[in-house]
Amino acid sequence: MSARRAAGGFTLVEAMIASAILAISLAALLPLQVMGVRMNRWSERTLDASLLGTDLSENIARWNYSDPRLAPLTTVSSFNDSTLVATWDMGSSAHPTRKAQFSDSPTADQNATGYNSLGASYQGLSADVDGDGKADFTRYWNVYAIDATGSGTPSGKLIQIIVRWNEPNVGWHQVALTTFKRNPANLF
Predict the structure, then answer these.
(1) Please, what is the Cα angle at 44 between 41 and 49, to 5 degrees?
(2) Which pTM was predicted?
(3) What are the residue ranges spanned by the domains of the chain?
């Protein structure tokens, strides 16, 4: 009779041990879930920043070559000039060591020489991605005239576009891209 009772099922102690093992296993998986949620958010924000940068690049393509928002900082002789390289990364601090030339921030921006450079009439994507009335991203850009031949007449302008955002409890992130606007005076 006792053999039959033992084969009949779990005892309360066995059930508690099984529950404890299950709880420990689930607790071990919790950090993976949290990391997955963070990575999904980071991926979403990176995609949004890339789209904002691409949008600005497409709008720049429609701007006149002499537009004041495309006034070059300086003229460089190549695409790998140290001046260009030095301004690519604005860093992970809220206040980078290097200022950008232009910013789309509607209020004074200590990270750029010129702010609100897109103005209220900008037809592109809004930096307020979530629609809460506050910009989630800031677009920065630097403009360099490229005179690779040394002729004194630039062949065009290289525009560095940097989109930055602050990830709470993590820090500042950025996405950088570039576009080139040919000098219409050099077209044949």
Answers:
(1) 125
(2) 0.81
(3) 12-186
Contacts of 19 (CB under 8 A, 6+ apart): none
| Burial class of 85 by CB neighbour count within 10 A (0 to 12, 13 to 18, 19+) | exposed
pLDDT digits (tens, 9 = 90+) for 29-69: 888 888 888 888 889 999 999 999 999 999 999 999 999 99
> How many residues are present in the chain?
188
Amino acid at site 135: A
Q: Got the DSSP string for 16-54?
A: HHHHHHHHHHHHHHHHHHHHHHHHHHHHHHHHHHHHHHH
d(CA 127, CA 134): 8
156-167 and 171-182 beta bridge pairing: antiparallel
Q: Can you count the helices (H) and strands (E) in the chain?
A: 3, 6
CA distances in angstroms from 82 to 78, 86, 88, 160, 178, listed in the order given: 9, 6, 10, 14, 16
